[in-house]
């Protein structure tokens, strides 16, 4: 089964070439619970849902995308609800992942690709993320963080110095809709975006267009206003909602509230993209 997580799950699923849990990686099996916690705190050990090699999604070029487990949000449209709980991930060391990353150095160089850390929410495991980012930079590899920004406060200055690109999911423009979509508040995402802007880190914004949930014109306009306040946004992706993640909710015994919600029509997606383009934003 192909892994898709977070908002990029709405993007060109056919472009996801590999991805089946942590296949090819060694699961960490040493030590007891105390040691495991220590290793996690140090950043050497992460709780990983899956990884895959993708082209033309999750950032430029061909990328190794690592999906970590655990997320503070509860997006109604989540494509991978099994990434919401950190305990569902498997323990994998940064050393193991970086060894795998090193193997693809030639591919990354040839395609302008690199490493993308996604989830779940990668900032749930900031020490692990920091170690991965540092390791990638030491290998001369481009780095991207895919995040909702809700836990932006967990990102240290050192981490941001090792981050070339942030894929920032802005799930809604008004507070009420944001809360309805995610169960949480929008402001931390805006604060994180402000910080990225101040640091001059390149950002791609992602917004999932869901009929009857996020597609109110006033809401779309607010997302566009948020994106246009940041000069470091080089691209916006308006991603049409689809139902391809629905089955997972049932298999986990979770209530899926978007049953029967249709994907937006091509015209509706174009209209939303036009709202961003009208603000001078390069939008796909
Ligand atoms: S932020 Fe969390 S809950 Fe929302 S889509 Fe991404 S993984 Fe799912």
Write a structural description.
With 284 residues, the chain is α/β, with parallel strands linked by helices. The chain has a single domain (5-277), classed as Aldolase class I (TIM Barrel, Alpha-Beta Barrel), CATH 3.20.20. The protein is 34% helix and 19% strand. The protein has 10 helices and 8 strands. It has helices at residues 33-42, 94-103, 105-111, 126-138, 157-161, 175-182, 187-199, 217-228, 246-251, 266-277, and strands at 45-55, 62-68, 90-93, 114-118, 142-147, 165-169, 202-209, 233-240. It has an 8-stranded mixed beta sheet with strand order 3-1-2-4-5-6-7-8. β1 and β2 form a beta hairpin. Residues 13-18 have low confidence and may be disordered. It binds iron/sulfur cluster (SF4). The site of iron/sulfur cluster has 15 residues, from loops. Iron/sulfur cluster (SF4) binds at residues 5-7, 71, 73-75, 78, 80, 83-84, 119-121, 148.
